[in-house]
Amino acid sequence: MTASGARVLAHPSLAEIRVEHVLHALADPIRLRIVRQMAVASDGLTCSHFVLPVAKSTLTHHFRVLRESGVIHQIYRGTAKMNELRGDDLEKLFPGLLDGVLRAADHEAARLAGS
Amino acid sequence: MTASGARVLAHPSLAEIRVEHVLHALADPIRLRIVRQMAVASDGLTCSHFVLPVAKSTLTHHFRVLRESGVIHQIYRGTAKMNELRGDDLEKLFPGLLDGVLRAADHEAARLAGS
Lengths: 115, 115
Prior knowledge:
Order of helices and strands of chain A: HHEHEEHH
Shape of chain A: globular
Structural class of chain A: alpha+beta
Number of strands of chain A: 3
Distance between the termini of chain A: 51 Å
CATH architecture of chain A: Orthogonal Bundle
Largest interface: A-B, 28 and 28 residues
Oligomer: homodimer
Mean pLDDT of chain A: 91
CATH topology of chain A: Arc Repressor Mutant, subunit A
Strand content of chain A: 5-15%
């Protein structure tokens, strides 16, 4: 690909984001782990930052689902993709939703670790 | 079926409920509509109470997903199934999660109705 436009990834606008798609994106355990890591990161993270028990192609798929549902923003920086949560956008659309899901995931992780 | 035990439906215990399964159950637009209706009902609702644009067998499937994920409680009353949200159980496990999802769904419904 030589056209620079080809390397810009498509993201839903605020008006296009749907709560069902956001919940579907967050309902997968691997995607939820990715989102939890992003939520505590102070900066964008490359895909290769995430060490998860899935194939690289599967991980790419998970990032695409997160991007297409409006949960994350992805931009190319050189050949790497940088990933950031769309926390402000989601908060504007669905106040408290992402925090509620992250808190629930934290509760569950603590509960399972303790059992 | 003559044994009364055969008509008791299986429900996950609190310890068996997983946030991923709850989110998956809520991520479907039809199931989310069912849950929103239950959330404002003062009492249990029969399956036939819900008038939704899906086949009866599909609706039965949706109720099963909601029950098996821990979102609703179903009991037989005669030949009808009565459905109730497990709001208290979910609040105990994942404080604020269900309310956050319901609020997000309300926001979205208002937004889409206004556009």
